[in-house]
TrEMBL record:
Protein's UniProt name: Holo-[acyl-carrier-protein] synthase
Molecular function terms from GO: holo-[acyl-carrier-protein] synthase activity; magnesium ion binding
Cofactor: Mg(2+)
Xref: InterPro entries: 4-PPantetheinyl_Trfase_dom, 4-PPantetheinyl_Trfase_dom_sf, ACPS, Ppantetheine-prot_Trfase_dom
EC number(s) stated in the UniProt entry for this protein: 2.7.8.7
Sequence similarity: Belongs to the P-Pant transferase superfamily. AcpS family.
Gene name of the record: acpS
Superkingdom field: Bacteria
Length: 116
């Protein structure tokens, strides 16, 4: 059963400029494992974090670092959800996450499905 869905779109150049202008932002938005990626990949991961929040109903108190996109076997993206995001997901009955990322033409998109 689908518990929630979320989608988000990020302008890569604008996102890259924001990261350059605000040096501490990278640490607030991304886990240590995500921080060294290229701008396109960071923008897609930021979109995924926003999509996770939407799939959960945008509850207050979520942190961006509580949703981490990791690369699984064969390059497939997977979500790791911790902290308050994991608590909310558990309360909603989420047992599995699905995530799709893409970036092309200066735009990054993420689609997230929370399954229960």
């Amino acid at each position: 059963m689908i518990v929630g869905i979320g989608v988000d779109v990020v302008d890569v150049a604008r996102f890259e400029e924001t990261l350059a202008r605000t040096p501490g932002l990278r640490a607030r938005l991304f886990t240590e494992g995500e921080r060294g990626l290229r701008a396109e990949s960071l923008a897609a991961r930021f979109a995924a974090k926003e999509a996770v929040a939407k799939a959960l109903g945008a509850p207050p108190g979520l942190l961006h670092v509580e949703a981490e996109v990791v690369t699984a076997e064969h390059g497939r993206p997977e979500l790791r959800v911790t902290g308050r995001a994991a608590e909310v997901a558990a309360a909603l009955g989420v047992t599995r996450w699905h995530v799709s990322l893409t970036h092309d033409g200066g735009v990054a998109v993420a689609y997230v499905v929370a399954e229960g």
